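Title: Comparing notes on inverse folding

I've been comparing how different people in this forum approach sequence design from structure. To keep things fair, I'm posting one structure and asking everyone to reply with a full sequence. Here's the target:
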């Protein structure tokens, strides 16, 4: 890697050059990040401490998704928040590669987790009599193992692309984070072959999984015709939450990677939605649309407060 790059650090232009705007964004992003971490960790702790939820595959996947949201947001948000108060926004070459690696490992794992959640809803609604047999703890653990392995493999491929770029200057990235397309703009060699490979590894993967998820939810909704009115309402509420999360995640992800290696002015907004707002909205969507989670959170909070009072 050292033979291919002469750049030891990168200068990030950030989101805005206006000091007043930076101060406002610092407060806003700090609040968003704290809410993201606390909200998702609350869901994880609630599920792990609730006997009624911890044995359910749906909530098992939800706890894993929330943990991935915390990790994904933590890869980007702290660096953005610190840089908003820094005069010179820099990141080392090694730090840039590490950010790319973990950004894609958690993003790739989340793609597979969302797919597993869709499969869980399909079995629960379309094959209810066989649900406990199919969605057993062994299969759930296998699916989460596949999510971790798939995210790691995807990230290794992206990291390999990034490490092969010939970077000899300039070192100014018109972004607030490191990613492949902004880095490719700095390459001093012809990298026409990398663009299609990156689009295939990330963009085509996102489009394929997104299409499969949309088709699966259409099948689920179509199968609800034979259910009772109460069953339809409960299934629609659960599926509505999943669909909202899927659209929020795959929309920006598809836009960002399923295209030629170009950099647009609104890429920063899309990345903020993908790495900060989506992880924040996931717990909000699942909490406010799910009575079981709200009741479990209420019980967990009351039990935690009672323990603190006894101490």
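Reply #1:
Here's my take.
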């Amino acid at each position: 890697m050292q033979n291919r790059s002469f750049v030891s650090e990168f200068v990030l232009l950030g989101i805005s050059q206006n000091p007043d705007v930076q101060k406002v964004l610092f407060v806003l992003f700090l609040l968003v990040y704290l809410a993201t971490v606390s909200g998702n960790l609350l869901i994880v702790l609630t599920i792990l401490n609730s006997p009624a939820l911890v044995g359910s595959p749906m909530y098992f996947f939800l706890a894993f998704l929330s943990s991935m949201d915390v990790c994904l947001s933590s890869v980007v948000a702290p660096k953005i928040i610190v840089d908003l108060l820094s005069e010179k926004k820099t990141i080392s070459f090694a730090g840039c590669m590490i950010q790319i690696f973990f950004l894609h490992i958690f993003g790739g794992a989340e793609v597979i987790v969302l797919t597993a959640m869709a499969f869980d809803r399909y079995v629960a609604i379309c094959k209810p009599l066989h649900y406990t047999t199919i969605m057993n703890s062994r299969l759930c653990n296998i699916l989460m193992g596949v999510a971790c392995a798939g995210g790691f493999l995807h990230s290794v491929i992206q990291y390999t692309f990034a490490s092969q770029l010939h970077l000899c200057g300039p070192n100014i990235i018109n972004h607030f984070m490191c990613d492949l397309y902004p880095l490719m703009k700095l390459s001093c060699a012809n990298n026409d072959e990398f663009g299609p490979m990156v689009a295939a590894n990330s963009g085509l993967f996102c489009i394929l999984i997104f299409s499969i998820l949309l088709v699966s939810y259409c099948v689920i909704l179509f199968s609800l015709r034979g259910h009772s009115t109460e069953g339809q309402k409960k299934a629609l509420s659960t599926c509505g939450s999943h669909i909202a999360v899927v659209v929020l995640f795959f929309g920006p992800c598809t836009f960002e990677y399923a295209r030629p290696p170009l950099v647009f002015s609104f890429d920063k907004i899309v990345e903020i939605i993908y790495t900060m707002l989506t992880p924040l909205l996931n717990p909000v969507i699942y909490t406010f649309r799910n009575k079981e989670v709200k009741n479990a959170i209420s019980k967990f909070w009351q039990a935690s407060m009672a323990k603190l009072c006894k101490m």
